[in-house]
Amino acid sequence: MTVMRNITVLSGGVGGARFLEGLLHGIAAGTLPGIDPDAEVTVVANTADDLWAHGLKVCPDLDTVMYTLGGGIDLERGWGHADETWSVMEELRAYGVEPTWFNLGDRDVATHLVRTQMLDAGYPLSEVTHALCRRWLYPRYGAGVRLLPMTDDRVETHVAIADPDAPSGRRVVHFQEYWVRLRAAVPAELLVFVGLEDSTPAPGVVDAITGADLVILPPSNPVVSVGTILGVPGVRDAVSSTRARVVGISPIIGGHHVRGMAEQMLTSIGVEVSAAGVGLHYGARSSGGVLDGWLVDADDTEAVARLAEAGLPAIAVPLWMSDRDATAAMAAAAIGLVADGEPAP
Ligand code: GDP
Ligand code: CA
């Protein structure tokens, strides 16, 4: 079996971060087939969820990955700092300043202050992220983990929703407003990825994909997390042409997302909400897509034959990331599926 040293993961927030925890656990424990114990993991994170709030640049997915891997995440909420307090938020609400629906914890605010100051001083987001990781990632993992934003450019996912009071019958809200304030409870009629097609990959992103031995699409949102990363011009081409094996894991189990709003997002772009639907949406590299292999949950076994027919090798294994061991086992299965296959042309 070929030994794999460079692993690149295209990650959203909570789903991606949980997967990364299990992957790193598996690497450290030596339970992943063909993976060097000193393997280096590069995380390319989605930044299309980013927003400006109260003068601060907030990067939810970068921070979720950083806090989770750095041991600072609030485990119950799955996002934000552990031991958080909310005084700043209460004061802002008392002033009645918008957005009142976006929660910023006091500790979290410090991260956004550092980030915003550095951006104001002219540093690109990738360098700012590197600086923040000096606290969260490097003391724990050394060179073992690197976190890159997908782009240094401003990209924002916006969602069009029905609004009978608007002249057009529609209103457009920032993705965070759709998710946090509206709880994704109304249909997403249209998704607009503002700035995406004019963005360029952040330094190191394309090299991390083309120079990897293994590229993993974790069970992150296929539309507003992985979809936006692949949408940065040059990234999809890098994935489809890399010499690395590319494997993905379904975020949809039994026709539903595990948490979040993947169902609403997939419906919005007309993709079938199923493990097979998402696999076929990414597509096999042998037919112009991005995957060499796809994992579906043990409850979605019927998808395997359908995927194989479409030229996408798939296996059905438990995909619930209930703890680090279960997630590491999932990562091992993903690697096993593609490890000794022929690399794509
Ligand atoms: P977000 O940016 O915080 O929304 O997180 P991601 O985009 O990284 O991941 C969200 C996706 O993770 C959702 O579509 C969920 O269905 C998926 N997810 C969360 N927990 C699990 C799990 O235990 N197993 C699987 N297979 N998917 C999960
Ligand atoms: Ca996200």
TrEMBL record:
GO terms for molecular function: transferase activity. Keywords: Magnesium, Transferase. CDD domains: CofD_like. Pfam families: CofD. NCBIfam families: F420_cofD. This is 2-phospho-L-lactate transferase. It comes from Nocardioides panacihumi.
